Amino acid sequence: MEAISPAELQPILDDIAHDMASATDRGEPAIYIPELGSVDPGQFGIALCLPGGETLQAGDATTPFSIQSISKVFTLAIALGRLGDSLWARVGREPSGLAFNSIVALEHNNGIPRNPFVNPGAIAVTDAILHGLQPRDVLAELLQFLRTAAEDDDIHIDKDVALSELAHAHRNIAMAEFMASHGNLQNPTALTIGTYCHQCAVDMTCVQLARAGRFLAGFANAPRLVSPSRVRRINALMLTCGHYDASGDFAYQVGLPGKSGVGGGILSIAPTRASIAVWSPGLNAQGNSKLGALAMERLAEATGWSVF
Ligand code: DON
Question: Model confidence over 69-103: pLDDT tens digits?
């Protein structure tokens, strides 16, 4: 397939942003984290980076939002770099078919979470990185990873969001304790959950997130942060597990690896073609951005970028 030029892509993004701005059925922001519940659902942004170094954007693409579970992609990359394949003794690689915060799978699997993107899986990954370090060291490493990936130092943690989640983290704490009962937690629960809530509270814009995703798209000129074989495997997990119990639907409708967050963001990768970030705070029933998923469908249809 012929590569689509930036000049052809820009009107596609403009059209999508225009239609999403006037959509009436936008979903509801995540209210279980009070700070996120008050974000204006009327916003929509999209940005993409191309192999030639161009970044295109439309809508609210420079408004910071809480990346939430999208952080799990980056902590996974850090953990694999640090621990290698021994990480897989603590977390599986299978879709769960369950909500991101479901507890039941843990009991069926002796405290081993199904994959690194459901909450207990990401908590196990954070716990693995934390081992022997202080939370501030792990968070500094994550921020450094993101800033290097995006080539932008203006990426920070929103403390109010972190504390808001921490004050309502009963379910994540319960899952961490359950994992601890099976020997699958190495640090005190409070340290691991405190680190996890802060990692989820990183603020980024669509432009920053699309730029940070370039290392997963296999661009020659992107910062090289993990090996090509790991890039393939992280993309495989994003495709199969990145949208929780809507992962099959996202693969069917969009055909690209993607990772969502309850802040309403989605990072999606069209290998060798584009790193894409979309954001709209209203969520669907599975906790993924309603308009974000719709926008990705539109973009995949217009570009033919599906991996299938
Ligand atoms: O642990 C939580 O519930 C949130 N910090 C992250 C969940 C999330 O983003 C799920 N994504 N759609």
Answer: 999 999 999 999 999 999 999 999 999 999 999 99
Q: How far is CA 265 from the centre of its chain?
A: 7
Let me know: does 75 contact 142? Beta carbons within 8 Å.
Answer: yes
Residue from 28, 100, 197 whose mutation best tests the ligand 1 pocket (most atoms within 8 A of CB): 100
Correct CATH for 69-200 of 3.90.1010.10, 3.40.710.10, 3.30.70.580, 1.10.10.10 = 3.40.710.10
> What topology is assigned to 6-65+204-303 in CATH?
Beta-lactamase (3.40.710)
262 is catalytic: yes
Token pair 């239609």 is found at: 19
Radius of gyration of the chain from Cα atoms?
18
For residue 262 and ligand 1, the question of a CB distance below 6 A is answered with yes
31, pLDDT greater than 70: yes
CA distance 110 to 190: 21
